[in-house]
Amino acid sequence: MSYIDVTFIEPVDLAEMGGVTVEEAEAIIQFAEAAAERIEQEKAKRRRKRKVERSPHIWLIRTQRRRTALLPKLPTALSPRH
Q1: What is the dihedral of CA 52, 56, 61, 66, to 10 degrees?
Q2: What global pTM score does this model have?
Q3: CA–CA separation, 31 vs 3, rounded Å?
């Protein structure tokens, strides 16, 4: 069960399932909400970091493709033979 899953459980139901008081269940749910938010922020930070790290490579690939597309196509008869 994930932290997000725990946030959807009612305190009374969690108290019954966990053998804790309703107040303890509320504290558990609050902790789970904070943890779920923190995890989501960390994931977003990692995604942004990966995007920045990949950006120069993507830019280079796209630039090379554009340059290749702009080059005139030589007829096969005039193409150099190896």
Answers
A1: 110
A2: 0.59
A3: 8
Q: Distance between CA 25 and CA 4 in Å, rounded?
A: 15
Q: How many domains does the chain have?
A: 1
Tens-digit pLDDT profile for residues 24-75: 999 999 999 999 999 999 999 998 888 767 676 777 777 777 777 766 665 5
- Cα–Cα distance measured from residue 79 to residue 16, given in angstroms and rounded to the nearest whole number: 79
Residue span of the structural domain in which 19 resides:
3-69
Range list of H helices, the chain: 3-7, 11-18, 22-70
Cβ(12)–Cβ(25) under 8 Å?
Answer: yes
